[in-house]
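go over my protein:
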Amino acid sequence: MSHLFSTAFRRANLMGPDALMLAEDVCDSLALKPGMRVLDLGCGTGLTSMYLARRYGVEVVAMDLWISAADNQKRFAQRGFGSRILPLRLDVAELPVALPFAENLFDALISIDAWHYFGASAGFFDSHLAPFIRPGGRVAVVVPGLKAPFNDGVPPELAPYWQPNINFFTVDWWRQLWQQSAALKVERCEENARCEDAWREWLACDHPYAVRDRGMMAAEGGRYFNFTSMTGYISK
């Protein structure tokens, strides 16, 4: 991926642990071919969307709640992706009502470091997303979480940084949630191997949230956090 984005460009556009590093573990599982349509859910500034368009020749709908479509459109156009990536600012919780995506429109869905904000409940995938992915379409999600549950509460060293409804869970917790889906067939659900590298790249940024997170990650010391990678397909 380094040949697609300079270190300066990537760091200037990160919104959390390096999404490109995390995506590297799951992108090939999508079995993408040129011309396919991909929904990049929670795309942030669109780094993963540009990567998918460039490497696989796919058309991408880059959807995010926090980054304006105009900002992402400008970024995509400046790097030659204006006709291949459609940016949308939309809350996924409002689907399927808010936007009339055609049924079975997408060949694949990917979501990197965003699922915990909206998808940590049973039935969410089937009601909000499954209708838009064709039968056999591929799904890949990488979500932050925990190596082991906090059965005795949040460790004291992390308490100053903890937020309500942070939705950090273990690999087993996420696997059990996704396995409840009637539409999604989970093939792989395991720890992502790039957790430490992705966090290190984020903490090297000058983003105010990255600066804030340095204290949290120093306190965490590699003991608690991980990322879960899930890949599967639509079996409806």
